[in-house]
Amino acid sequence: MFDRRWLLLLTVGFAAVVLLGQLARWDHLAEERKQIAASVFKPQRVEKLADDRIVDAFIALPLEPRLSSVGWDHAILSVDLSVGSGDTERQLWSDVADLVRLSFGQLSNVRQLLIRVFAENGDGKKTLLFSAVTRASDWQSLTLSDVQAPEDGSAPKWTARLDSAWTASGERWRRNFANS
Fold it and tell me: Which domain of life does the protein's organism represent (predicted)?
């Protein structure tokens, strides 16, 4: 007759074989769950901006300074950026170029873009450095792929199409990079 130990060993062995056979299935199910979760958070390509599509429009932008706020009202897009102590003027121009290409290249219903750039102090206060206003009609004669930040960090030629102003604090911020 069978000893109880042999019966236990046979039962455990059978259970191990069944479980090992199911590993491939579990791996497949886990992979499916990951794909479903990834597809839920995959940004959609936005061609017309609306209140419920703002996040989808901005999620893919590699903005260096922090995005502080975005507003959308009657075809006017307003964007506030905050720069930190380590951010450079080249990063700023790169972000402005990204915003222009998004607003007037990818999105078809933005008529005007308002940009403000702030410096954040350690105590949470914000100081306005730069502001710019531009319209879609300002960019019709220029290929938007040419809107890039120069490698040396200087103001790009295309900034003449921006109605922009630097504050006194902004000019000091720019000089810090020119002197370094």
Answer: Bacteria
Judge whether 134 and 163 are in contact, CB under 8 Å. yes
35 & 55 share domain = no
Q: Check if the beta carbon of residue 81 is closer than 8 Å to that of residue 118.
A: yes
Please say if the pLDDT value at position 118 is more than 90: yes
Picking from 49, 141, 51, 24, the residue whose alpha carbon sits closest to that of residue 99 is: 49
105 shares its domain with 20: no
Take residue 11 and report the two structure tokens written for it.
């039962």
Q: Residue 92 belongs to what H/E stretch?
A: helix 89-101
What's the average model confidence in pLDDT over 90-111? 90
User: Do both 58 and 24 map to the same domain?
Assistant: no
The pLDDT of residue 37 = 60
Amino acid at 6: W
What's the domain range around 23? 1-42
DSSP 3-state of 61: coil
Q: From CA 109, how far away is CA 49, in angstroms rounded?
A: 7
**Using one digit for the tens of pLDDT, what is the confidence trace for 31-49?**
777 766 655 555 567 788 8
Domain co-membership, 29 together with 57: no
